[in-house]
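[[Sequence with tokens]]
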Amino acid sequence: MNLPGQIFVMDQQVVCPGDLLAEGDFEIPWSPYIYKESNRYYASVVGVVDVKNGTFTVIPLKGSKYWPRVGDTVLGMVEEIELYGWTVDIRAPYPAYLPASSLLNRPITAGEDLRRYLDVGDYIVAKVEVFDRTTNPILAVRGSDTGKVTDGTVVSISPSKASRLIGRNRSLLNTLVSMTGCHLMVYPNGMIHMRCPSSAQEEAIKGAISLIEIEQESRISDLTEKVRRFIASKLGETNASSSAEA
């Protein structure tokens, strides 16, 4: 891949304010966590770098909100029902909007009861279709991996920690799945949808996620080992191995 410059940081690298990220003429979405001087890009916060497809962004480590990116698939909760759609909390600084026509794949009749399809408190998986500094995020339901969440359990983690779960080689996520037998979908806004074979496995996953949230370990390999030991202590080595084989 021919890049329009040079990226000086690695995927999942922790950076501090003023750290040089890249040099060149990259087309990256505007972000409050990156600033540009001449043709150099710098971090404005302490955060984790996400390098993907020849571009990059910074996810702040503390007190972070999810910063939407067009094309991201996110899981959000319906906060309000409007005349022609829903306001959805995707853990961003701004509320997102899901047009009902996108979910139903047809025009909406004025006065139609949208609670029949999504009510306040329901969860929805959707793609960020539009977002910039002048427009709140607009969501779209498109593809088999989007739509209303109808089963399983939803939990959350800070977006910066979510990026570590789904980052390079996914060793942390693979450990959670293989040791519990749970099906996990982790979204970049820090929302996690889980389906587990039993309540014991679900509680083990929830405990492991809480451990990941508070753990300050910087090396993924060390954090993965701590998570492995935690799950084994909750399920037992034998049960954890059986879940991995199931």
